Amino acid sequence: MKTMAQAVQAAAAPPPFSVIGGFLGAGKTTLLNRLLAEPRAPRCAVLVNDFGDIAVDAALIDARGGETIAMQNGCICCSIGGDLARAIAAALDLAPAHIVVEASGVAHPGRIAAVARVSPELRPGRVFVLADAGALRAQLQDAWIADTVAAQLRAADHILVSKLDAQPPREQAAVIDQLAREHPAAALSTTDEVQWADLLAAVDARADADTAPADVDSDSPDAPATATAAAPDSHSPDMATDAAAPDSHTTAANIDAVPHARFVARTLRADAPIDLRRLAAYLKSHPDIYRLKGWAIDPADGKLKLLQAAGPRLAITPYPAGNTVADADTTDAGDGDGVGCDGGDSDSDGGGDGGVGDSNGIGDGDGGVGVGDSSGDGGGDSGGVGGGGDGVGDDGDGDGDHPAITTGILAILIGNQNLPPPAQILRALTPD
Amino acid sequence: MNDSTTVYQARRILTMDAATPEATHVAVGGGRIVAVGGAELAQRYGGDNVDPLFADMVLTPGFVEGHAHSMEGMIWKLPYIGFHARIHPDGHQVDGCATVAALVQRLRELEAALPADATLFAWGYDPIYFPDKPMRGDLDAVSAARPVVLFHSNLHLITVNSAALNAAGIHRGNVIDGVYVDADGEPNGELAEFAAVFPVLRAVGDPVFHGQDDPEGLRRFGRSCQRAGITTTSDLYNALEQPVVDMFAAVTAEADFPARIVPALSTLNLSPAEVIARSEALPARNHDKLHLGAVKIITDGSIQGYSARVRRPYINGVENGVWCDAPAKLQAMMRETHAAGVKLHIHVNGDQASELTLDALEDAIAKHGALARGRRHVLQHAQMMDAAQLQRAAGLGLLVNLFANHTYYWGDQHRDATVGPDLAPRMNAARTALDAGLDIAIHCDAPVTPMGPLFTAWCAVNRRTASGREHGRDECITAAEALRAITLGPANTLDLDDRIGSIAPGKFADFTALDDDPLRVPPMRIRDIKVRGTMLGGRWQGA
Ligand SMILES: [Zn+2]
Asked: Which chain A residue has its CA at the smallest distance from B354's CA?
């Protein structure tokens, strides 16, 4: 497929073209402000809708004009001002290393991003779509906006969940679960985890890989073989592997098949029991994993645990951990007085003796009992975990039913390009 | 105009004024109407003299176009190659290109007149009317080397030749949404949406015919209005940046500028506070032919573009359309500007868009009461409002301006391809609106459809599609109702009903002179009536 477009690229090295979408209030401006303030950002042209909302430390600004702000890190922020074509043309005149466009809150970001697949002056970057963890599930039920929000998410190469930590733990699990199920091909991470320099470097690497001749693409022996095939939209070679494995209870999703990427987000999901002590040990021995956040049923006590890791230390917290989640109707939160296990210290307590007490809410695996009574009352119960039985369940049918975990694990992982495929991680964690 | 008063006699005068619905004489002095009545006016005001200018004509109030765009004038920078004949602002008729052969021939003539490396641009193309729509192959016959770009009549799509596709780097290997292909998978030249259109205009140049800062374009717009019999028009979406305001103020003040203009400030990229401030400042530039201060909010897209927000998905499976901004922001804009007393024209094509708007205005009016000075917000297009929504609008004291021309231009497509046969015949429900007690206007949305209030009236009275099909006959209105909907009705929507819209003492002497009587010809002939000219503030200009 030698095209004129590629000939032009060879001469001029057109910039990758990425789009940040997401509904009003999802936090695009915050994220863009962080990009502009990022010291290691490449010379990005950042095209924004709400120019007035751009707020960065004055010390980081080089020059400010009516329609542009030049940053000391080499980024330039430009107002779109209702005319995207004009804004892109102006950005191209600056010969930036990367163009990042903020899609309006109601725009379909994929339709904007598509221009880079045609224009010889641009290379495809990535479509980032923000999802507001506090609002998403209500948005997807709202007749005025549900289709818009869903279409934005469908366009995402990478879904960035904002405000996750502000939600009750059960709601956090429900949101992540729903996004992971409904958008299995998209990478998934929280906005907190975004390191723009790494993200953009990953995009640049992929843009290079997509446009470079295949035989030059040899500098990374670790790159998964499936990724070098560089099929334009294949994000999920590992999924194919899993699907082919007969009788597997493991589903691994959100494989980001970016070769050479320095920032990779993946989702671990399994119905089979996971040994959390093994997980803790695994993280210690895999520095390629930067962060983990998830939920699991601990086989040691059959109870639900919240998993959080930054670096090699895995914190395993009983769930619900005595905080005021909105699900008091289904569990007494135990008498666990906040006892947790820090798997990072050692695996000595591993969660098995965590003293969570006799909380009645933890799923017992039969699908009928579970934290959060997710079996369908939907009455304000965010019902993240439990019930369901198969951990897959139907989606978005409006009954508030979000089956997630009865026996296994649901977690998002952030790491570098050496992050092992989820299926491989899961094999390492399941008892032989 | 000074103290001297002239009495004109006409074949018949349709005044739209309840006190004297019909007359034969009108006395005009100082640019205003002095009196309306019979022959006695000659003695009272004319010193027994009567000006016979209109003796064989029928006079109506000057037509008022409640929803058009000054782009109608700007766009004639490019040659017109549409299917239907269209009147150039300079008065000559540009024949329609009704066959592929005619289109190619016209384009060849245009091409031959261009300098060597110029792109051939033209506008007004509408593939809907061609069974085998002209595609890039046909345009390649115009020129193999020179890029050819046709803007569709909806201004959102383009059709181009191979030279333009090549220049843009579009080929069968990188087809995206918006790049249409033929049966063999080759791009056929038709391109929709930003991602497909941008690379072409980037490569071959953007003719920028949609700027609003071109004084000659504004003069053309005025002439187009005048020829259609329009003495007052809206310009219903204008960013009104300072140079544009200055230019509008100067050009409309020219003695021979033949229409009053009511621009509405676009809210695009403005906060409610900015909109309020500008809306309050702009009227300082007003004069008799320029009326600033109103604001335009666009909520959704178009029905034929599948972008109007509809409660029921389009019949081809396309979803419910596209909001122009997040619903919460749109509603906040309406509530906050209403609270500050700003008059709003609100573009609502789909029924979900009208629902959103009614919800917001209901809330705002309950909290802050109606607008002062009898002004009322206007739901523009309002194409899919049903009886319940129209009742709500009436209850809130709103006005609706219906897109009657759609019945003709897209009625067939709405039935067969967009909202389907259940809903299409109910669109632009003028009868239901009148029965709900609403004062209505009807409009053309030029340049989307051509300006011509009599044609618009014909659409509302007869409801025929371009293929001749009857389209919701129970929503037909009478010729008298339609005449009001192109005069006093839109004057009301523009808050000028105290000055224009009817022939009554004290109002501006704005008349449209016709060669026949729209209330007496057979309804199907209303569109054939010729405009002989207009009087604007007592100043006559033949068409
Ligand atoms: Zn319009």
From this structure: A144
Tell me which of A222, A237, A261 is where a domain ends: A261
* Separation in Å, CA of A2 to nearest CA in chain B: 9
Q: In what order do the strands lie in the sheet with B187-192?
A: B120-125, B148-152, B157-160, B187-192, B179-181
The letter for the amino acid at A380 is G
Residues A17 and A79 in one domain: yes
How many angstroms separate the alpha carbon of residue B68 from the centre of ligand 1?
Answer: 6
A30-57 pLDDT, tens digit per residue, is 899 888 888 887 789 999 987 877 777 8
Considering only CB atoms, which chain A residues are within 8 Å of B173?
1, 3
Query: Is residue A382 domain-shared with residue A324, that is, in the same domain?
Result: yes
Determine, for residues A147 and B199 on separate chains, whether the beta-carbon distance falls below 8 Å.
Answer: no
Contact call for A85 and B206, based on CB within 8 A: yes
- Tell me: the pLDDT tens digits for B74-105? 888 899 999 888 888 888 899 999 899 999 99
| Placement of tokens 């502000």 in the chain | A166
Please tell me whether residues A212 and A116 are part of one structural domain: yes
From chain B, the residues in CB contact with A5 under 8 A are 169, 174
Minimal Cα distance from A119: which residue of B? B199
User: Does A104 share its domain with A212?
Assistant: yes
Say yes or no: A113 and A235 in one domain: yes
| Final residue before a domain boundary, out of A261, A285, A315 | A261
Task: Tell me if B323 and A148 make a contact (CB, 8 A cut-off).
Answer: yes
- Extract the runs of DSSP E, i.e. beta strands, from A254-312: 264-270, 289-298, 303-310
Fold annotation for B1-62+501-543 = Urease, subunit C; domain 1 (2.30.40)
What tens digit of pLDDT does each residue of A316-359 get? 888 664 432 333 333 333 333 332 333 333 333 333 333 222 23
Q: Which CATH number fits domain B79-204: 3.40.50.300, 2.60.40.1730, 1.10.3660.10, 3.10.310.70?
A: 3.10.310.70
Number of domains making up chain A? 2
In terms of phi and psi (left: phi > 0; alpha: psi -120 to 50; beta: otherwise), the region of B161 is: beta
Q: Which positions in chain A have a beta carbon within 8 angstroms of at least one beta carbon in chain B?
A: 1, 3-5, 8, 23-25, 49, 52, 81-82, 84-85, 88-89, 104-106, 108, 110-115, 117-121, 143-145, 147-148, 151
Is the predicted pLDDT of residue B507 greater than 80, yes or no? yes
The Cα–Cα gap between B157 and B176 comes to 15
> Residue A380 — very low, low, confident or very high, per pLDDT cuts 50/70/90?
very low
A197/chain B closest Cα distance in angstroms = 27
Residues 6+ apart with CB under 8 A from B167: B147, B200, B203, B204
- Which of A284-298, B12-26, B402-416 has the least mean pLDDT? A284-298
Closest by Cα among A161, A137, A158 to A149: A137
Residue B344: pLDDT over 90: yes
Q: How many helices (H) and strands (E) does chain A have?
A: 13, 15
Amino acid B210: pLDDT: 60
| Tokens (6 digits) for B531 | 């405009």
**The CATH homologous superfamily of the domain defined by B215-500:** Metal-dependent hydrolases (3.20.20.140)
C-alpha gyration radius of chain A: 22
| A117, A189: one domain | yes
- Name which of B421, B428, B424, B423 is nearest B404 in CA terms: B428
Least confident of A309-318, B179-188, B338-347: A309-318
Residue type, B64: V
Cβ separation A143–B311 shorter than 8 A: yes
Closest CA to A95 of A72, A76, A69, A111: A76
Q: Tokens 């449209």 — which residue?
A: B512
Q: Point out the least confidently predicted range of A179-183, A384-388, B147-151.
A: A384-388
pLDDT single digits (tens) A105-124: 999 999 999 999 999 999 99
Q: Which residues of A touch B324 (CB under 8 A)?
A: 106
